Structure formats: C-alpha cells, structure tokens
Fold this protein.
Amino acid sequence: MAAARFVDRLNEQIAYEFAASQQYIANAVYYDSQTLPRLAGFFYAQAVEERNHAMMMVKYLLDADAQVTIPGVASPETAFGDIVAPVALALQQERRVSDQIGELMGVAREEGDFLSEQFVQWFLKEQVEEVSSMSSLLAVVERSADAPMFIEDYLVREHAPGETADPTAPAAAGGAP
C-alpha cells in the first residue's frame, strides 16, 4: 500500500499532468493557427505524452489500491505574443514539473515507501529528457523567430515521428501507450 501522504501528492501531480496536456494542446492550436504544422504536431504529441503520464499515475494508484482523484484543471494560456512565447512557457512548465516530481520522490523516501520511490524514478529520468528537449527547442525558436521555417526544418530533422515507446515506462490506465 502506498503511503497516504504520497497518494495525496500523486493525486495532485495527476492534476498537474492533465493541466500540462491542456497547455500543450493550446500551444499546438496556436501554432496550427500560424500555419506551422511541425510545431503544432510537436505540441500535440507532447499533449498526448502528458496525458499518458497522468494515466500512468492513475494506474499506479489503482494497482496500489489507493484513492484516485481526477481533478479539474485551470484553463490554459491561449494568447501568445509571438512564436517564442509558447515554447518559453513549455520550458517553464517542464522545469516546474521536474521540481514537483523531485518533491514526490522526497515524500516517498521520507515515508519509507520504496515501491512508490521506484515508480517515481522513471518520471525523474523522463523530466531530464523533457527539459533538455524543450531547452533546445527554445534556443532554436529564439534564434529563428524571424524565419519560422528554420524551426519547422529543425523539427523534421530532430523530432521525427515514429519513435518507439520506452519499454521501461510504467503502464497507463486504459492501456494508453
């Protein structure tokens, strides 16, 4: 059984993951409206990934026979001043999530909840990748803000679709990949 304090914090994290998914959809819609399909596609894919992270957390709580709370989330930001703003917001969000996941690990460790600690380790690894990827994208977007097709080309080269799923990823509720 997962520690009660960990369960509470993981339920909070589920809300953050769903909120991140919604924000990434808003980012994608903005880029779609700017006729930047690769940027839009990148953020649509990120939205699915964040949703799946939430569902992984739901599955863990279900498997641990713990209470699951599916929260409402605040509306995402939808108005952006330029093409840099959504990526800057995404990097800020990924850094915040990294801190939140680190705090989750701390709670599991403080509670002596070794199973929950092991579960969170995958998310720590994932956040290193997410922050790195978003930092690189922000650098490219900032350099190429006046020539957005360079950004589109970068995404074609560096973020080609069809990457295989991480076999070490926790299972998600509902069978999400």
